[in-house]
Design brief:
The protein is α/β, with parallel strands linked by helices. Helix content is 34%, strand content 17%. It contains 13 helices and 15 strands. The strands form 4 sheets. The chain has a 7-stranded parallel sheet, covered by helices on one side. The protein has a 3-stranded antiparallel sheet with strand order 8-7-12. Strands 9-10-11 form a 3-stranded antiparallel sheet. The radius of gyration is 22 Å and the shape is globular.
Length: 383
């Protein structure tokens, strides 16, 4: 009873300025086996993943690529995934057919199939704990929790490692109105979720802060209903059945069920933005996340890019950064690749840049460097 009296509800406020905003690319999940973008197409075309090669979804996508692109498995020469999506998006955006075989309607189907296969491949290496993301959160907790994260990754390793901080020291704010926040009876089976933008219950010796995790390309464990335009967070369920093309979950006794919106019965869709030279930002969830990312970039003293090359295909990211970065903001780029081209990409954003040629795992294991990045004391020497 005494402990219950100490519990209280309180608002978790954000400071007006963020000390550090991290922008994370695929390089942060690579040490845990999550494939880089350039590794995805070889997995689709090689036949090594039986669930892809044996499914109608996989066969349809492979046939389309074989009909319209040239590649050589023996020399590991493949087209870029962005080029395939860009080709598909050309016909969709212009409402054109490619041929009698590939009508505009069929091309739209093929795009959805390809997105589902990418979802499947990325999830193959996500069902485990990450030592490196765990270390990342340890450093955050020890040195500075006034941070935000903008992630370009679909995987959920970062969130899974947050269990270290949950409730006692912090709550993740996904910056979208999740269906799980509503305490409606229809949502009970999916699990309610604490909304850090509303009062939360704080117990003795707890000092939680809200931390924004803005996944602007979507997430494997988000399910989107295009009827009510709402998003369900299924914390541990990320699976997709390629035979049926359905998002699925598992009961405690290992029975499989298909996810449907509890409000209107519509089949949930994946919510990941595919790589393409022609990106559509019209989805209301993606649009809201980009706006939230813009606010964080405008309100920070330091932006730290980790495992991200700022490629030419990510025009929307460059536009976001060019519009929002203040000339006094310090930029730190953590990347194993030191090519001049990557430096040019970042130097087009600002001249106030520090390049550090390290991997994500090297960074989080270097406690002194993480302390400097998080506290700005002593200040990092600029490149």
């Amino acid at each position: 009873m005494g402990d219950m009296l100490l519990d209280q509800e309180k608002f978790l406020y954000y400071p007006p300025y963020r000390d550090v905003v991290f922008m994370m690319g695929a390089g942060t999940s690579r040490p845990d086996g999550v494939p880089l973008q350039r590794d995805i197409l070889p997995k689709i075309l090689s036949g090594e993943v039986n669930e892809i090669s044996s499914s109608e979804i996989g066969k349809t996508v492979v046939e389309f690529i074989n009909d319209n692109f040239v590649y050589d498995i023996s020399t590991n020469q493949y087209p870029r995934l962005e080029a395939i999506f860009g080709f598909i998006d050309y016909f969709i955006q212009n409402d054109e057919s490619l041929s009698a075989k590939y009508s505009n309607a069929q091309i739209r189907v093929i795009k959805e199939y390809l997105i589902k296969i990418i979802h499947y491949i990325v999830d193959l290496r996500t069902d485990k704990e990450s030592k490196y993301y765990h270390l990342f959160w340890e450093r955050i907790n020890k040195y500075n929790r006034n941070i935000s994260i903008i992630s370009l990754n679909y995987d959920t390793l970062l969130e899974q490692a947050f269990n270290l901080l949950f409730k006692k020291f912090g709550y993740l704010d996904f910056c979208i109105p999740l269906m799980n926040y509503d305490k409606r009876k229809e949502m009970k089976a999916f699990g309610y979720w604490v909304n850090p933008r509303e009062p939360v219950t704080v117990g003795e010796n707890e000092d939680p802060v809200p931390i924004k995790l803005i996944k602007i390309h979507g997430s494997l464990n988000w399910k989107y209903c295009n009827c009510c335009n709402q998003t369900l967070l299924t914390t541990w369920d990320r699976k997709i059945d390629l035979q049926k093309g359905k998002l699925v979950g598992y009961t405690y006794d290992k029975k499989v069920y298909e996810y449907q919106c509890p409000l209107d019965g519509t089949d949930f869709q994946t919510l990941i933005m595919p790589p393409s030279y022609v990106k559509s930002l019209t989805n209301p969830v993606i649009s809201q996340l980009i706006s939230e990312a813009a606010r964080e970039i405008r309100s920070t003293n330091r932006i730290v890019f980790i495992g991200y090359s700022l490629s030419d295909a990510d025009v929307h990211i460059k536009a976001l950064l060019k519009k929002q970065i203040d000339e006094n903001v310090e930029i730190v780029v953590i990347n194993t690749r030191g090519e001049e081209k990557i430096r040019w990409h970042y130097e087009s954003l600002s001249k106030k840049i520090k390049f550090i040629q390290k991997s994500f795992e090297d960074l989080v294991e270097d406690e002194s460097l993480m302390q400097q990045i998080l506290t700005q004391d002593p200040p990092l020497e600029l490149y």
